Structures are given as C-alpha cells and as structure tokens.
Write the structure tokens for this entry.
Amino acid sequence: MHRAHLKRYRRAWLLMAGIIGAALLLTAFGYFGSDTWTTLGIAVLHTTYRLALAYGIALVLGVSVALLVGWSRFAEMLFPLFDVLQNIPSFALIPLFIYFFGFTSEMIIFFAVSSIIWPILFAVLTAIKSAHADLNDAATIFGARGLRRIRYYLAPLSFPAILTGSIVGIAIGWEAVIGAEIITNVAGFGEFIKAASVSGISPSMLAGTFAILVIVFTLNRMVWAPLLAESSRRYAE
Amino acid sequence: MIASTDTALVLSRICASFTDDEKDIPILKDVSFSIPAGAFVSIIGPSGAGKSTLMRVILGLMPHTSGEIVRNFSRPAMVFQNYALFPWLSALDNVAFGLHMDGRGRKERERIAREKLKEVGLAHLESHYPAALSGGQRQRVGLARALAIYPELLIMDEPGSNLDTITAEELKADLLKIWRSYGMTILMVNHLIPDVIELSDQVIVIGARPGRVEKTLVVDLPRPRETRSPQFFKHVDQLTEAIRAVS
C-alpha cells in the first residue's frame, strides 16, 4: 500500500519533470515569443491572487457556518436547504454578480467564493453528522459543552473534512475564476488564454496551460499531499 | 424513593423510547434499582436490552420519558467499549481533556494526566496518538482519562469486550486496585459471568425488548475473591440460571 503510493508519487514527479523539460527545450529553441512570459506571469498572478483570496473567504465562512450549524439543533433542518442551494449551477449566477459588482476583480472573487464554499461546508457538516456517537458522548461527559464544544471538539474533529473540502473547493475555484475571467474579459489567466487561443493553438496558449499545470501540481504535492498523509495517519481508526 | 447520602444512584420506574417513523419504540420499561455509594455494580443482559441506553439516561445524555432519577454524585465519567479517544490528541492530552474543560492550567493538568498515565502503566507512551496504540493501551488511556477528573461514579460499557483475554485479565486486576484506592462507585456493563461475579457487589440482570430489570443478585463473597472456591461457582451458577431465564 505504502509502496504503491510512493510509486505513484514518483511517477507524478517524473511526469512533471518531463513537462518542465519539454517546456524548457521549447523555450531554448525560441518557440515562445519574447514578450509572452511577463504578460503570462502577470495574468497568472492575477488569477492566483483571486483564487487565494476567494478560498480564504470561503474557508472562513464555510467552516464557521458549518461548525455553528453542526453545533446547533438546526442541522437536520438546514441540511436540505443547503443541498438545494448547492445544486444551483454557479455560472447561472454570474449575471447577478455582474449586476452587483460590475466587471471587476471583486466580482470574480465573490463569484468564486460562491462555488468554493459548498464542498467545504458540506464536508464539515457531514463529518460532524457522521461522528461516532460514543465520541460525541465522550466530549459531552468530559466537559466539551456549550460554545467550547466547537473549539475543542467539533473543530478538531472536522480537520480531515476541511482538508478534503479545500482540495475539491480549490479545484472548483480554478474553474470559477478562470471561467469568469473568460466570460467577463477581466485581466487574468482566463482572459490571457482566451486571447491566445483565438487563432488556434499558439505558443502563448501552450505556455499558459503549462504554467497553470505547474502551479496546480506544486500546490498538490507541496501542500495537500503532506497534509492528507498526516491527517490519515493521525485520524486512522 | 428517598436517597440517603450513602446511595449514589436511584432509578425508579424509568421508561425511555426511541421515535422512529412517528412510532414510539420502547427501549426501557419501568427500570428501578439503586446503587450504594462506593459499590461495584454490574449490569448483564442480552444484546438489544437497552443497556447502552440505560447508561446514557443515567448520564443525562438522553431524556427518559417517565420515572425519576436521583443522582447523588457530582462527576460521572465513562469508559467506552470502543475507547472513544480523541484521535487528534496525544495520550497525555486525551487524559488531560476533562481537566482542560474544567479550566485547569496546562502545568497542573499535565501533572495530573502524567500521574494517571503512570497509574495505568502507560507513562512511556504519553506523546503517542491513539492510532499508534494497541487496543489494550487505548482502553488504559480511556481509563486514565476517566480517573483524571476523580469521578464519583465511573460507568464502564463492556470495557474488556474488544480486548484479548490476557489484556482483559490485566485490566480487570488493575481496575480492582483502582476501585479500592479511589473508593468511587462503579457501574459496569459486562457479558462475562465469572468476571461479573469476581468484580461485583451487586449484579443487575436486564431482560430485553423492552429493557427491564429481571433480577438483582447480591454477591457477598469476601475480597480478594477466590475464583476457584465452591461458593464462587455457586454464584456463577445462580447468575447463569438467572440469565437463562431471561433469554
């Protein structure tokens, strides 16, 4: 099991090294235009900044709401309501966001929050709902009552769920931010590849795709994989 | 029923039920018994007899539909069948949890927690997380967590049933030692007839569907108990008979 994981891990690194190597070769042979990289860099920075901010807001909001609802007696009542809200296709709400915020960076950020928040909220609510009855009893008997139940019991209990919810949320977040940029033409990575792909596959478009691949891969391997490994080691039954 | 100071717990005609699809399913029916302070009392009965529900009602974790409970203890603690340790806390922090919730400072609660871990023979594993401990070790951490708040009533729900025989025997011996030195009241759910006779002052036999008290047996053998004596086997037979009548 562990060895299989290592193997997969190594294969992922190899694949990534291959992609970077190929890109470097293409760069060396002058495939990518000279001005592509600064434009691309700025576009990627815009998009990453929006995603980071949207994720931060969605994390704080989603976890707080889920903890409060899970702690209260209304969890059973609110669950179906959240389920309906979650099922609204998020891009259908874009006109609403544009109406309130215009064609701005803020609009994209708030739109992304509305997509990222659901997987986080549901992961935490489900974790609280499906916690072992004995563990709930132990927390109560040993004094985790009232509001401190949230801090000392529900929050640490939800840690693995916050992690998996974040991974799914960020994946959806990339889509939301880039998609919104493509739709609204607000400067960013989405707008960059849209412009670059107008005349078919261009070097700029390839460079852009490659850049986002590297960011996603690095985030996954450097942040989420170690956190997941730690969480599954500690929270194992 | 009137509870005197030397009675830890009195239950009179306790009923409890679950609501499922608008239907009330009775779990406990007219359960009455009293437990003297400082006694070791065991509850035995077939599965599905509502023993866990009874524990939860006694601890106030679940409402009962009718009847009266007199709780003559200030702090209850519980040891669980499947340990119920907090996986995100080290053994030491698990043991210190109740003290932490009581608002004790870090230094004080860690000192007490270390003491309790030592009492259950796990001083060397204080920084381990539950996932890294064996079943027997987890159960000892669970016991230390309960002892750390100096409970007046200790409830144990089949603490040995997930352990191998040797580990369960060791736990039983330690439990008797701890009970003697702390002087608390112990209420234990147990399936093993010889263990029940060896440990208890009083045995409550519960029948199933709905859970009710079928028989109360007093075990007045002198302690430490000789588990090979004819009197011991006589009690084992008596209890076996009582349980046969129930199932």
Q: What stands out?
A: Chain B touches chain A at residues 56, 59, 61, 76-78, 80-82, 84-89, 97-98, 100-102, 129, 131, 145, 149 (CB under 8 Å).
